[in-house]
Fold this protein.
Amino acid sequence: MKTALYLRVSTEDQAKEGYSLEVQRETLEAFAKREGFEVYKVYSDDGISGYTSDRRPELAALLADAKGGKFGLVLVSKLDRFSRNLKDLLNLVDELCSYGAGFKSAGEPFDTTTSAGKLMFQQLGSFAGWTLPQSCATMDTIQ
């Protein structure tokens, strides 16, 4: 299956902590190979927050290509690389679905074709959003 890889990092600290674009790419390429997915293209937003989707040019390009039927699956290393906002995440995945593209995380096992998988996906999406205010609160405490 033709697969789009989506990478995102928002801060230099994240890059140093093992979330670098290079590490994400290596992880996703290995996962795709293991699963027998054909990598169509790698989309990468560097230094951009995952809280909203409207300021990510590579995500916009990915959605345009999905609409054009260029691939059938979007693969991310973790949900929080795709979005840190549950509403945004659900809307993005619904949009992909409307174009006939699936969504998968290499780091979190869920299957959005089952009720249990949808529940797990939503729970993990909630946690991705929850960690953002936590990290902001930590930064406020440090400063």
Summary: Residues 132-143 have pLDDT under 50 and may be disordered. The longest strand covers residues 38-46. The beta strands are 2-9, 38-46, 73-76, 102-105. DSSP finds six helices and four strands in the chain.
